[in-house]
Amino acid sequence: MNTLNRRAVLRLAGLSALGAAVAACAPDAAGGGAPKGDAAAKAFGFTSWSLNEEAQKGAVQAVLDAYAARAKVTINPASFPYNEYLNQVTLKLRGGQLTGAVQLDISWLAALAAMGRLKDLGAQAAGGGYTDVALGSGQFGGKQLGLPWTTGSIGLVANTELLKKAGVDGMPATVEEFEAALRKVAKLGGGITPYAAATKAAQLKDILPWMRTFGSPLLEGDTITVGDDASVAAVEWYKKLYDDKLIAPDVDRFDARALFAQGKAAFYDDAIITRGVVASQSPDKSLTEKMAPLARPVLKAGDTPQALLWGHVIVVVDGEGSDAAADFAAYATSDTATVASFFEKVKLPPTTTAGLADPKVSGDTFTADWTEKITKTATANPFWRYAGYAQIEAAIAEQVQAVLVGRSPAKEALAKAAETARPLQK
Amino acid sequence: MNGRRLTDGQFAWLLMVPGVALFLAIIAYPLVSALVTGFFEQSLVRPGRSFVGLANFADLLGGDFWPVLSNTLVFTLGATIAPFVIGYALALALDAGLPGWLRGVFLFPWVIPGVVVSFLWLWIFNANYGVLNGLLGTQVSWLGDPVTAMVAVIVTKTWASFPWMMVMLLAGLQTMPKELHEAAAVDGAGAVRRFRSVTVPHMRHIAGIAFLLEFIWNFQHFDTIYVLTGGGPAGATKTFAVAVYDTAFKGFDLGHATALGGLWMLLLLVLMVFYLRKENT
């Protein structure tokens, strides 16, 4: 029988340790490893949720391909679904596994910026010709951490054909008129949801503009006002719509888009991207012509309609390939031909003065209408200033959902939401 | 070879070194690190942490822990008892002579990945365009109501796990000497009496082990619940697995998440003791 002596065993152990060390140092699939600056990098990553969405991935991929061919670089794409995106990107960034350019919702910038790993893109922003509002959406802590890719708003969209069938004349301007319109649509039957409002926790943040409509500022200084009489009234009204089946249970943004695209919803909330998404999902090819943006109804005539500022930025993670990625970010967001072509495909408005002036953009009546009715009065969510903004919204959403399903009265639920949210204001 | 020879004992210890090293690196270290983190206020997105003693545990025990424990127990009991009963019934039917190819058919749900199963049922249960409402002609919000949402996740998990229970119990049934049944039949015992007096005592051990294992797995289960309801509506299906995930990776609050994980682990250790004692008997 063969026996091993001590030397052979030590040799074996040494080889095993070497193997383990090599395995531990191996780069991950996304090209991670120790970050290092490299101005001449020929490969970098691009992480994006749009690459995961059927309606947009073709247009985004075209931008990547065009830049890769022009700059002779390789772009390694990665994507996660929107609802999981912030979570995944945060984990990867914390683990040092996220490099290159990263698409972000403007609301997520504070959370990622708090980790201190984003590159200052001030130099790229200076020469990009971006509008001031757009540039502001990519700034945090006095630095330009993101280049604006699109800036718009989230507002209400209506199916004018359904409204006409229901006998609704003109767009409702007040909450009272809106509710009356919903009741008329409900009478159509046929499984139509009058207002495909968000009722799943993932998108229940859509109730925040309604709380503002009812008069709650949400945040005054650093005091959360969720739970005040106005926000309670808004949630009670939402609950009334829910109980009267004017809004449907179990709906998030994706369900709402599907319902609207099938002609099964008269109103829903979405960003200006709605037209491209609905066009790609609807069997009715003329549905986009029947879509109309409307200013969110106000509590009483003369109030300012509420809408949420919305947009995407591209940030760059400091380190490996960051210079090349920053150049790509500038190209994707400010090259006029690129942004105009991108607009043509997905209807996301550009963020540069030249891009907005391009005939493909300026000649688009839906975009002009949207800008006039919704974006014009859109404001940022006041919670975005906190790194824990997503958790604050989640705390509110969970309590609003508790009201909808009858687990808590609105006053008690919103008080609890505010109590949960307070420690997250940092 | 002129080196000193190793004794069998020394060689055995050396063989264990890679395994022990791996255990220390990927289980012991993260576990201890996580347990320690429970005593700190630590964020996933902010650098640094501060010692808070038992404050995280006190917070949890003063609020979120109990509804989560209740949801976990309801889910675990439902998702263990239902597949156990269905699996037992099918195992008995197969053992009694149901065509063998049906065993393959019944195993089908088990081979589908859990997330895929969950998405299938998500579509079935959807309130607005789901198959179930289509078949029933109703518009019930199966996943939007606290009670039906819990039933829905239990049904989904049952569909995915009854085949495993069936296979385990069928294996047990097939080790049972047929003579016992024949003797009981000769003595005049009917089918029910034979099941109660012959099958059940023979199956007690394996059924107990299968039940306990399924209970432990369900106590830790994540994917079905997360895909179907995300712990909602209003936290009605939020079990330990979902709560820890949400707290850590959506709330970015590592201190509370690991404290909750520590409490969860303690409960699992109790179940493990039961399991090990059962195994030893």
From TrEMBL, chain A:
Query: Taxonomically, which superkingdom?
Result: Bacteria
Give the UniProt keywords, A-Z. Answer: Signal, Transport
Signal peptide positions (record):
1-23
Does the entry feature the keyword Nucleotide-binding, yes or no? no
Q: InterPro entries from the entry?
A: TAT_signal
The Swiss-Prot or TrEMBL record describes its family as follows: Belongs to the bacterial solute-binding protein 1 family.
What's the protein name?
Answer: ABC transporter substrate-binding protein
Origin species, per record, is Nonomuraea indica
TrEMBL record, chain B:
Q: Supply the alphabetized keyword list.
A: Cell membrane, Membrane, Transmembrane, Transmembrane helix, Transport
The record's subcellular locations are: Cell membrane
Q: How does it sit in the membrane?
A: Multi-pass membrane protein
The principal location of this protein is: membrane
**TM spans (from-to):** 12-40, 73-94, 106-127, 147-171, 254-276
Which residue ranges does the record assign to the ABC transmembrane type-1 domain?
69-275
At the top level, the lineage of the source is: Bacteria
User: Which InterPro entries does the UniProt record give?
Assistant: MetI-like
The UniProt entry's sequence similarity note says: Belongs to the binding-protein-dependent transport system permease family.
Can you say what this protein is called?
Answer: Carbohydrate ABC transporter permease
Source species: Nonomuraea indica
